[in-house]
């Protein structure tokens, strides 16, 4: 699978819309099968855009470039930080961020979601996670054990000063679940009043080995070329419902 991860600089809404159209065309022309944009990439934290306009834009782009599946990061809709997946002009899945990030005041902006979401597309099962969700291994574990995901797509608005945490958690979710993990983070925000330096984009295979790329945006995922796992995180999983504390 060829995956495109946008290196996104968030600016004004109008410039972001133009940039989205441009990069989507580039990714599709480069043969990407999965195209991913980061969290809140159209409006950041401080701007707003009409959800109907966003949906029309996503539908138009995914219809124009019918082959790839698009993960259009997230946008604000219905009081939620909503991640969506599109292909051929229609939405395949929507996921509302469950684990809101309190230090950024996200509880004042959105309501948390109440379900985890996976989607079957491109012959794979993709588990959807949004930024701070990555800190909660039970979410990734549920997606792996219950939905049998073989690829996690994680979008983020994660700061560069904590890039090591972002990278480590992406790698950990890959290792502990034996899945591919792609992480697409906003590179920067250059909007006045919302200056931000974002973390990097990363891809890890089911062993936690990083996938290298020559251009920093296109990654090749060789699902058939991975060595067998030493420990099968699905077959060897055990459900334990009791915890005992001895005093």
What is this structure, in a nutshell?
With 247 residues, the chain is of the alpha/beta class. It has 5 helices and 14 strands. A hairpin with a 2-residue loop joins strand 4 and strand 5.
CATH fold title: Nitrilase/N-carbamoyl-D-aminoacid amidohydrolase
Question: How many beta-strand elements?
Answer: 14
Q: Tell me the count of domains.
A: 1
Q: What is the gyration radius calculated from CA atoms? A: 18 Å
What spatial form do the alpha-carbon principal axes imply? globular
**pLDDT under 50 segments (min length 5)?**
none
State the end-to-end CA separation.
Answer: 52 Å
Largest sheet: 6 strands, mixed
Secondary-structure class: alpha/beta
Q: From N to C, what is the helix and strand string?
A: EEHEHEEEHEEHEHEEEEE
- Under the CATH scheme, the architecture is 4-Layer Sandwich
CATH class: Alpha Beta
Helix content: 10-25%
- Number of helical stretches of at least 4 residues: 5
Report the average pLDDT across residues: 97
Strand content: 25-35%
**Fourth-level CATH superfamily:** Carbon-nitrogen hydrolase
Present the secondary structure layout:
Layout: E1 2-5, E2 9-10, H1 13-29, E3 34-37, H2 51-64, E4 69-77, E5 80-87, E6 90-96, H3 106-109, E7 118-121, E8 124-130, H4 137-147, E9 151-156, H5 163-177, E10 180-185, E11 188-191, E12 194-197, E13 202-204, E14 218-220
Parallel strand pairs: 1-3, 2-11, 3-4, 8-9, 9-10
Antiparallel strand pairs: 1-14, 4-5, 5-6, 7-8, 10-13, 11-12
